[in-house]
Design brief:
homodimer, 190 residues, alpha+beta, Jelly Rolls, four-stranded antiparallel beta sheet, DNA-binding
Chain lengths: 190, 190
DNA sequence: GTAAGTTCTTGATTTTTATCAAGCGGCAGA
DNA sequence: TCTGCCGCTTGATAAAAATCAAGAACTTAC
């Protein structure tokens, strides 16, 4: 099983011949540092699984930029509103470093359902997992202090802190870079 | 088309014979005021569409209660982690008033997919809509002040403010009841 | 290797929101 | 009708986090 097939297996729980069959639809693509994968107003018609690099999903909202998510190796890069509902996106998706992806077009994505009979069901399960993750994130934003949110992200995704500019992580957690810096200092002293 | 079939049509975009076919799986159920639909640790094995009353979904977390959502007429009451993944819930789901629902059991829910071939696809679309709504909610929590969040909820769901105790709405928006009260006062003066 | 530009940190201050505490008002039950 | 309770409001104060501003540390480019 190659790298791509590992990713597909992890995401959708497929196995055997299906892996190679689906894998063949994905093409290797690359983004240069600062290049955009998607901009607001565009309809996202690709889905990428990230091999390397750092990709930031953010919204620009009167003067301030809100980082919705940071994707690293293994991340799932797309915009569901485009991919599934053919709606224009609100998001910027931009490479913070050079990045490599396995990418499938919307047409091929739709084609999978003709090849793999249970595909819609697997998609459902995958999207439901995403939904539950969002539910957790909302809970963390509703109930936790900035320090607790830091601890939460650190536990859920420690790798981010090695690789990603802290200002973006701060935005993603709903705090300013200064606040994050002070929290980190406090934690380092312990 | 009866009331239940209207709901089913709105949720999943079905029509014609399918509506009656799926509708027949739902049974009318009722909750008394303060009765629990679900408690933490239980696996949710029903899905309800709400006809009347107010139902609160919340998490109890060392001394404080966090209201995740308030459901009114037309609301979708379930816990996906139980319904789809057979996992125990983190949530309390409780009727704040007497409430009536159309309810389907997990077994019948699964059975639908044998009756309606495209069922998994419709479920996928429905869950994807839920996901996108959560994405918006996260954006509102990350980027907006308490006043803006109030305005946001008021625009998305004005009905809630007529029917639901304000303390729960405050929690749902990530603020204290006192803060919500002050915001409302300020808005009323304009 | 140095200059220029970022990004991160630190401190001082202001703003926002939570907390604490008291009082008001409507509603349910005796 | 009265009483007690619950939910909402209001005010005073405290805590948390944002903002503003400056400087340090790290990158990148030449």
């Amino acid at each position: 099983m190659n790298e791509l097939e590992e990713f597909i297996k992890d995401y959708w729980g497929l196995s055997g011949d299906d892996l190679a069959r689906i894998g063949s639809y994905f093409k290797q693509t690359a983004l240069k540092k600062n290049e955009f994968f998607l901009k607001p107003g565009k309809i996202c018609n690709t889905l990428s699984i990230q091999r390397s690099g750092i990709i930031r999903i953010y919204i620009s909202d009167n003067e301030q930029e809100i980082t919705q998510w940071i994707s690293v190796r293994g991340g799932f890069v797309s915009d569901l509103s485009g991919l599934i509902f053919d709606q224009p996106s609100r998001y910027y998706i931009q490479a913070l470093t050079d990045a490599e992806c396995y990418t499938i077009s919307h047409e091929d994505y739709v084609r999978i359902s003709h090849v793999i009979p249970q595909w819609h069901q697997l998609e459902k399960l995958f999207i439901a997992r995403c939904f539950l993750f969002m539910e957790e994130r909302i809970f963390s934003l509703l109930s936790m202090s900035t320090e607790q949110r830091y601890a939460w992200l650190f536990n859920h995704n420690p790798a981010l802190f090695n690789e990603v500019p802290l200002q973006y992580l701060a935005s993603m957690m709903g705090m300013t870079p200064e606040t994050l810096s002070r929290i980190r200092k406090k934690n380092a002293l312990r």
